Amino acid sequence: MKRLTALFGAALSLAFTAALMIEATQPAKALAQQTQVSPPVSANLLRPELPEGFSPLGLDNFGVSPDYRYFVYQEGRSVRVLRQDNLRETVRLNVQGFVQVGFDPLDRRLYVLETDNDRYRFRFINPRSGAVLLDQRYQDRPEIRTDFAGVNNVLSVRDGSRTQVILFNAAGRTTYRQFHDSVIRIAVNLFTPTVAFLDSDRFGRTRIEVVNSATGRVTVRETVTGQYDAGFEPAGSAFVVAADSRGSGAFSVKMTQGSDGRSLLYRTFQGPVNAGFSPDSRLLGIRTRQGTREQFHLFNTSDGAQVSRP
User: Fold this and answer.
1) How many CB atoms lie within 10 A of CB 175?
2) Cβ of 276: how many Cβ atoms within 10 Å?
3) Is 165 exposed, middle or buried (0-12, 13-18, 19+ CB in 10 A)?
4) Phi and psi for 269 in degrees, rounded to 5?
5) 8 Å CB contact between 219 and 257
6) Which 8-state DSSP code applies to residue 157?
7) Cβ-based neighbours of 18, under 8 Å, separated by 6 or more
8) Among 111, 71, 109, 100, residue whose Cα is nearest residue 87
9) Phi, psi angles (nearest 5°) of residue 195
10) What pairs with residue 148 in β-bridges?
11) How many Å separate Cα 70 from the centre of its chain?
12) Number of C-beta neighbours around residue 98 at 10 A
């Protein structure tokens, strides 16, 4: 748990440094208590996030696992896994070619990719019991991304301009499978079983889908053009799409609960696109501009209720 807290803190710190949107002139708590904002007040906000997730497979991941629970090594044509606390062997795999191994950051699951004669075999394993939960073969190299605990898993296979995407859970059950006719951007939520896909075409349109990877249900479908910002809140599944309203001087903001598709907020505001989350994930802040007048709005990410009114 301490390791998870440290990883979360580091992730927030990096995101905060890279994604600072607006200079702070007053704490968000004080903003929430105001009913009139004059002069205009801003806050430190984090842009909506599109995290890539963790890649468990490196060029040489043999040795101690990330959370120090296991020791992995190759002996001849066998990959072997020992528990660190009692040195008991829990996994032994027969392999034929070049092997890459890795874990999620909390050592809940083991990922093994074997390359043999330009063919690929991927295995997803419970390192505690040794059970092989998923065993798949591919002609093209798969890429794997995961969250902190091996629950939210994305496997993508790119063939030229096409991308096949497969979502599977901690039990190895495939919940979603889809082909895309382009190279898409994939965002893996690190704290909830939700994944976002962004597919842009040559006409400037971007199609956005959010999928609950536990059930395979598509919870968000949007198509945007021009300037936009889209992504998850820092530590939850609320997903925001803030998009320019085609040169009208306004922008729309849609906030949806990514896990179940529940609509939380849908409003239009004046000015250029400007929306972001508080670092603790509790609030969505929106800055508007009309002429020289600026206003700031705050909404709860839990239910979309407005907590400050200019």
Assistant:
1) 18
2) 27
3) buried
4) -130, 160
5) yes
6) E
7) none
8) 71
9) -135, 140
10) none
11) 26
12) 10
Give the mean model confidence (pLDDT) for residues 262-282: 95
Cβ–Cβ under 8 Å, residues 113 and 104: no
More reliable by pLDDT, 308 or 26: 308
The model carries a pTM of 0.81
For 95, the token pair is 């392999």
pLDDT tens digit string along 126-155? 999 999 999 999 999 999 999 999 999 999
136's CB contacts (< 8 A; 6+ apart) are 121, 122, 123, 142, 155
Q: Are 142 and 163 in contact (CB under 8 A)?
A: no
Taking only the tens place, the pLDDT of each residue in 190-243 is 999 999 999 988 888 999 999 999 999 999 999 999 889 999 999 999 999 999
Instruction: Give the separation between CA 266 and CA 208, rounded to whole angstroms.
Output: 16
- What residues contact 263, with CB distance under 8 A and at least 6 apart? 254, 255, 256, 257, 304
